[in-house]
Amino acid sequence: MKYLTTLLAFVLTSTATFAVDRPERHRPRTDAMIERIKAALDKGELSERRQAYLEHRLSYLELHKEIRTAVRDAIADLGDDATRVERKAAMEEVRATFSDQLQDLKDARRDAVKKRRHRRGADEADGAEG
Q: Is residue 120 within 8 Å of 64, Cβ to Cβ?
């Protein structure tokens, strides 16, 4: 019993100090990422592949920002006395409204990747013949 008590005390104190000593990670805000991507696209010194990636990333981040704003507004409309279930239902409703737009972005990205792969295959075939 003494062994278990000592072990439990050790685990509790070690996890408590670990949580306190953990450094906070810096995460760039969505607005800052959007601005950086726009600046990179404005320079125009990017490969076709990189430009396509950044354009897709920009549209995804802008949509993500809209979704988060809509979720915040929906939860704010519920008020402080809303239950967790009500908040979750509001979040699901907002996600459902944006699901088509998000799926369109995913499909467009897949199509672009397929086209690039197809062109790459055609370029390699032309190089092998010549």
A: no
Tens-place pLDDT, residues 46-61? 888 888 889 999 999 9
Q: Please, what is the angle between helix 48-78 and helix 84-129, to 10°?
A: 170
Predicted confidence at residue 130, as pLDDT, reads 43
Contact 108, 56 (CB under 8 A): yes
- Closest by CA to 117, choosing from 54, 49, 57, is 49
Nearest alpha carbon to residue 34 among 60, 2, 14, 8: 60
pLDDT of residue 100: 93
DSSP letters for 53-114: HHHHHHHHHHHHHHHHHHHHHHHHHH-TT--HHHHHHHHHHHHHHHHHHHHHHHHHHHHHHH
Nearest to 20 by CA among 31, 10, 12, 29: 12
Q: What confidence score (pLDDT) does residue 48 get?
A: 83
At 126 the pLDDT is 66
